[in-house]
Design a protein that fits this description.
- The protein has 2 domains: 147 residues, Immunoglobulin-like (Sandwich), CATH 2.60.40; 150 residues, Immunoglobulin-like (Sandwich).
- The protein contains 1 helix and 26 strands.
- The protein has 348 residues and is mainly β.
- Strands 15, 16, 17, 18, 19, 22, 24 and 25 form an 8-stranded antiparallel β-sheet that branches.
- Helix content is 1%, strand content 46%.
Length: 348
């Protein structure tokens, strides 16, 4: 039986006792009578108190999902945990309890559809147990803490706290109190939260000729915000590599004088970075104005870029646009010039 420990590692104890061994049928330890609940190996129990547990504080053990940050605050082992509800818990014979306390924070304005795609679980030697109702209303108003215990065999190999999002699973090792090597760079570039944001960029414009009998009009591109993230803001998708990120421009493209509507095709957008590399938009992760009876001017265009990008310039320079010459009647019209909007990506 492993002793109760508070060391930074909770790895399995060796079964080699050395010296004289006990007779095959003898009992080397005896457990006192117990009237509480014995958890099966792999079972996880949420508790209000970790009485009877010696805990080890942890720093830098964090995993992030789209709009969510999960931290391991402390962990430890115990033979028995006495909850403030009056219930006590133990692990089976030749097993122990691992206890851990977490903190969960939800970014402001994160959409519920993103949160509903997340799953939190504990894995013991590959066997998964879901942590239901892990996110609470308290998570969106500040860090929400919770305490759990999980029963594990003495000879366990891996015990992990996992956050699963579409396209990405990340783990905090509950034996070592450390995050795994599955954390994408872009997701941990922000000091807090999961998105680096820039706002109030300088507008830029180019020319378009909506009709043959008009002088060229000005097409003004205004970027409301630029988001650097690992999870895409349009469809929550992840880039093709952990070394990549999304750079997403959200804004509007307006034709003047007012009353004229021209739509810039997505092919009219490109991005250059501080190294001189050029990128084309990801169509599946972008939203361009549609040709409808009610003209739209808002756009969202996303580019897959290196996670280490420091600066970039959005260039909008179509040679042809779709312009509404009468209600619901859209035709191809020539355009010229280019709108350039530069952005610096914060390091943190």
């Amino acid at each position: 039986m492993c002793a109760v420990v508070a060391a930074a590692s909770l790895s399995a104890c060796s079964s080699d006792s050395g010296g004289d061994s006990a007779p095959p049928n003898s009992t080397t330890t005896s457990r006192p009578p117990f009237n509480g609940k014995t958890l099966a190996n792999g079972d996880v129990q949420k508790v209000t108190d970790l009485g009877g547990t010696r805990m080890q504080p942890v720093t830098d053990a964090e995993v992030r999902g789209p709009g969510v940050a999960l931290k391991l605050l402390e962990f430890g082992t115990a033979e028995q945990v006495d909850d403030t509800t009056g219930q006590s818990y133990r692990a089976p014979e030749k097993s122990t309890l691992i206890a851990f306390r977490t903190s969960t924070t939800v970014d402001k304005n994160v959409e519920n559809k993103n949160l509903s795609q997340l799953a939190f679980s504990v894995s013991v030697d590959g066997t998964q147990r879901t942590l239901s109702d892990f996110l609470t209303s308290e998570s969106s108003s500040g860090p929400a803490t919770a305490s759990y215990i999980v029963a594990v065999p003495e000879e366990r190999r891996t015990v992990g706290l996992q956050l699963k999002a579409p396209g990405l699973t990340q783990t905090i090792d509950l034996l070592e109190g450390k995050p795994g090597n599955d954390r994408p760079k872009a997701l941990y570039r922000p000091t807090e939260g999961t998105v680096l944001k820039q706002e109030a960029l300088q507008p830029a414009s180019f020319n378009v000729t909506p009709t043959a009998d008009r002088a060229p009009s000005q097409q003004t591109v205004t970027v409301k915000e630029v988001n650097f993230s690992y999870f895409n803001g349009v469809n929550s998708s992840v880039p093709s590599s952990p070394e990549k990120a999304w750079l997403t421009f959200v804004g509007a493209s307006v034709t003047t004088p007012r009353g004229i509507f021209c739509v810039t095709p997505i092919s009219g957008h490109k991005l250059t970075d501080d190294t001189g590399a050029t990128y084309t938009p990801n169509e599946a992760s972008s939203k361009m104005p549609s040709e409808s009876f009610i003209a739209e001017e808002s756009f969202t265009v996303s580019f897959e870029v290196p996670a280490t990008i420091k600066g970039a310039t959005l260039i909008v320079a179509p040679t042809q646009m779709r312009c509404q010459v009468s209600t619901g009647n859209w035709v191809n019209r020539p355009s010229s010039g280019e709108a350039k909007i530069a952005v610096t990506i914060p390091e943190k």
